Amino acid sequence: MARTEDESPKDWDGFQHLCELVAPASPRGDAPWNRVDWDVVIGLAEIHKVGPAVWRSIDGIAGVPNSVKAYFHILRDKNAQRNAAILDGLSIAVARLNELGIKAAPLKGAASIASGLYDDPAERFLSDVDLLIAPEDAQASAEALRALGYTDLRPDPGIRWMTPRRHHLPPLLAPEGFCIELHTALVQRKFEPMLPSADVLQRASEARWRGSTIHFLHPTDRLVHNIVHSQLHDLSSTATVELRQLRELSLLIARYSGMIDWSEVERRFRAAGHEDVLSDQLTYCRMLMGVAPPIAEADPETSMARLKSAVGDPAGHPRSGVAALNKLIGDYALWLKANPTLALNLINPSWWPRRIRLILSLLKRGEHRAD
């Protein structure tokens, strides 16, 4: 279906409403929430994987349809159950690595949840868990996880989230139903000068977590890793920003700004020739998340104009939950014949929103028929 001329403004309006809902500060009570196009907001929340973070903001807002609140409530609760199982499994894995004297540092979402960056651990979608370890500990770590019941996956190049990269071992499937990737480097080789793994692991701080010793990257390295991973290393189909990562970046700045070496951050991006990427992300933190970094952005107006033009082009992501599920069924019928391990994609939480929307839409149809 072709995009009509008025869809892009709707997308931008919906994107701004979504940003307000997931920003660290509470949404404004005077916003016209009863006139919001919730189909657009929900569609963008799916693309950006921030649905669970919407629930706490949306619960007390008047004018929001009950069906919308029900959708985000269900999504948050499902993610709470999954994250609880992941954290339980991670604590067992970390305890075993402790016994072997292996230093392990969780990355990205797992680090943010374990370190208490989120008030509600269910706010953050986790596709898997990344653990940074020293290269010399890679084999022993993998064997230790297999001894706990982890199994090797046979990755398929056509499934992005299961595809191994050179900087980490192939994913291992935990008995609890999530994957752990053991990283011997934080990023691909061309970005290694921005985040040299040995130095980053040495700077990591030691903390007690669930009875074990765990390590967290220094806030300076966490901030650089967030931007490099989301914007350079693993650029998403949303073209210029992924709200899940931008929200996490803003929370890191709000929590650790005084500990971040901002001159070092600027030096790393300048040396790599990516000052514009740093400037864009800091602009979005200030303009969209309400968190102002202590360094100035180069050209905020240009950054925002570029983002506005990109928001209306989600690179073919289906907006209809029904259409997405129909495509999923058709694709899986073909893919599973060739590779039965693709069934493991069913544990990928980024697919939950469309399933929940389908259930709610069918219930709604049933109500209308009963009337």
Number of strands: 7
What order do the SSEs take from the amino end to the carboxyl end, as H and E? HHHHEHEHEEEHEEHHHHHHH
Q: Give the averaged pLDDT, no decimals.
A: 83
Number of helices: 14
How would you sum up the major sheet?
Answer: 5 strands, mixed
How many angstroms separate the termini?
A: 32 Å
Strand content: 5-15%
Shape: globular
Low-confidence stretches: 1-7, 156-164, 314-328, 365-371
Oligomer: single chain
Tell me the number of structural domains.
Answer: 2
Key terms for this structure?
5-stranded mixed beta sheet, 7% strand, 7 strands, single chain, alpha+beta, 14 helices, 371 residues
Topology, pairings included?
Blueprint (H helix, E strand, L loop, with lengths): L6 H16 L15 H11 L2 H8 L7 H34 L5 E2 L1 H7 L14 E4 L5 H10 L3 E2 L19 E2 L5 E5 L13 H7 L1 E5 L2 E5 L2 H15 L9 H14 L5 H10 L3 H15 L10 H12 L9 H18 L13 H19 L1
Parallel strand pairs: 2-5
Antiparallel strand pairs: 1-2, 3-4, 4-5, 6-7
Helix pairs in contact: 1-2, 3-4, 4-14, 8-9, 8-10, 9-11, 13-14
How would you describe what is shown here?
The structure is a single chain. Helix 3 (51-58) crosses helix 4. This protein starts with 6 loop residues before the first helix and ends with a helix. The strands form two sheets. It has a five-stranded mixed β-sheet with strand order 1-2-5-4-3. The protein has a two-stranded antiparallel ribbon with strand order 6-7. It has helices at residues 7-22, 38-48, 51-58, 66-99, 108-114, 138-147, 197-203, 219-233, 243-256, 262-271, 275-289, 300-311, 321-338, 352-370, and strands at 105-106, 129-132, 151-152, 172-173, 179-183, 205-209, 212-216. It is α+β, with helices and mostly antiparallel strands. It folds into two domains: 11-311, no CATH class; 321-358, no CATH class. The model is unreliable at 1-7, 156-164, 314-328 and 365-371 (pLDDT under 50). 53% of the residues lie in helices and 7% in strands. It is globular.
